[in-house]
Amino acid sequence: MPKYEVGIYNQKVRDSVAEGEHHRQLDDKWAEIHYFEIDAPSEEVARRKISASHSPHLGYVIDNIDEVQDKFD
Q1: Which of 9, 15, 18, 65 is most open to solvent, judged by the fewest CB atoms within 10 Å of its CB?
Q2: Under a CB-based contact definition with an 8 Å cutoff, are residues 63 and 33 in contact?
Q3: 5 near 66, Cβ under 8 Å?
Q4: What is 42-69 written as a DSSP string?
Q5: Model pLDDT, residue 70
Q6: DSSP label at 32?
Q7: 0.85 surpassed by pTM
Q8: Is the distance from CB of 23 to CB of 9 less than 8 angstroms?
Q9: What's the gap between Cα 46 and its chain centre?
Q10: Consecutive 10-residue averages of pLDDT for the chain (73 residues)
Q11: Domains of the chain, with CATH numbers?
Q12: What is the Cα–Cα distance from 22 to 47, expressed in whole angstroms?
C-alpha cells in the first residue's frame, strides 16, 4: 500500500502566536508544520484519514501531501 507524508499545522495556534499569545489547549509548536506518515491507497484517502484525527474545524490545515517512495523500489 502506498505511504504518504502529510504536513499539517494549526491556523488557530499560528494566529495566537502571531498576536503574542498562546492557544488555550494546544502547544505553540502547532504553529509549525508537523509531518505524519499515512498508509493509504490514494492521496484522497490519506487526506481523509489525517482530517479525521486533525479536524479542519479545530484549525488544522494540510500544508502538503507527498507520496513516499519506498527505498527498496
Answers
A1: 18
A2: yes
A3: yes
A4: SHHHHHHHHHHHS-GGGTEEEEEEEEEP
A5: 73
A6: S
A7: yes
A8: no
A9: 11
A10: 96 96 95 97 97 97 93 61
A11: 3-68 (3.10.20)
A12: 27
Question: CA distances (Å), 69 to each of 5, 41, 49, 60, 65, in order?
Answer: 10, 14, 19, 26, 13
Buried b (16+ CB within 10 A) or exposed e, 28-49: eebbeeeeeebebeeeeebbeb
pLDDT in tens, 4-14: 999 999 999 99
Q: Which three cell numbers stand for residue 40?
A: 493509504
Residue the block writes with cell 506518515: 37
User: % helix / strand / coil in the chain, to the nearest 5?
Assistant: 35, 30, 35
